[in-house]
Design a protein that fits this description.
Elements lengths: L2 H21 L10 H22 L4 H19 L9 H13 L26 H6 L20 H12 L6 H26 L8 H4 L2 H9 L4 H14 L4 H12 L9 H4 L4 H23 L7 H7 L18 H25 L5 H15 L8 H10 L6 H16 L3 H30 L9
Helix pairs in contact: 1-2, 1-3, 2-18, 3-9, 4-6, 7-9, 7-10, 7-17, 10-11, 10-17, 11-13, 15-16, 16-17, 18-19
Length: 452
Amino acid sequence: MTVHRAAAGTVAALGAATFLAWRTTQEMSILGNHDRLLVEILLWWVAWAVAIALLRRVPARRVLLLVVLGAIALRLAAITAVVPLSDDLYRYAWDGRVQASGTDPYRYPPTAPELAELRDDWLFPDDAECERRDKEPGCTIINRPSVRTIYPPVAQAWFVTGHALGASQLEDLGWQLFALLADIATMLLLWRLLLRFERDPRWVAVYAWSPVAVLEAVQNGHVDGLATLFVLAAVGLAGRRPGWSGAALGAATMVKLYPALLLPVLLGRRPVRVLTAFLAVCVVSYVPHVLAVGWDVLGYLPGYLQEEDYDSGDRFLLLRPLGLSGSPGTVVAALLGLTVAVLVLRRVRRSPEDVSREALLLLGSALLVATPVQPWYGLPLAALAALAVRPVWLAIPLAAYPTFFAVVPAGPSEGAARLGSACFAAALVAIVVVERRRAGQLALPGPGGRAG
């Protein structure tokens, strides 16, 4: 294929992806035309894969403009007046409003009478709007309104910042634009890190053009986008500035807890400094809230783990077909995670300055073991896959979408679990096949007759 055809094909694939991004804003809700919405998202993934495959043939002088224009077009097409896939940003807006009123966000649930004066027509619509939404009078669009917030302190700081900047004045759109700030910062940092690691910066497109980045970090405004920024910072600082690397991972963990899984990757040759900085950020973040509300800082976390069946051991979708659930499933999942962590730690000690591939392996393995159906958990993974130039790992957030669409409208079921097992198994097979093929190519003898 000539470079001109490759460039034209990339533009055509991006055009298709942009159209599909816009289409997701027309379906209104996952609870409505969810089958059509899922098909559009899956077709977008196909367009993304084609664009990434052709991008390698585009001349370097055209790459920067193409990557930037593609990222802008996809985000402009996906921003919408009402988010279609998730209601999490309504909790963000509420937590920010509660903090701005001088109340600790962990003290009361949204329906508490003590917070009645903070309610408005957006988050607590009138009876007519509740009826239109098929809800009882006095409803709210905030999810799990009868329980305390689950989000850690740095996420709470992000929410109150968004409130102070007026994000709620534009409702859904305002919080999408606020989330876009973290998304832009992530892409800029990713570009810089690719250059520092002497990799082709065009691969920022792996993240920037992906459906998971556009849908979850921007359209649905998930705070995981902020966690992704801190994860990239932690990986970029590893080896060079261990204290700051540990602090950045601590900040990521205080946005969403699961980035803590990457701690073994960062330990390197100065584990004490990394661990001290990590723990310092976590402790300092929580202390004011613990002093204010005590153990209520845990919020809905125990209930969430129970809701997702992690406490019972029935949530590990790749282990269920093997007959491993309940306590045996939990034990096997823990052993798998520990084994990968040990292997990664040994690899990191040989080259602590560039841990991007080890971070990708560890987080990707953790997601394959835990198999969360929420696609936005794959946002840090998508950024790490771009940094390590391993786009196949985005098969994991891709696998989450069909399962998510099976669970949300109808609730958890055995059929949804089987679908999830099949999707994540396909992702695992794709990753293994591509990585083995890559390893074989790297091991082939070069012109001089020795393996490279």
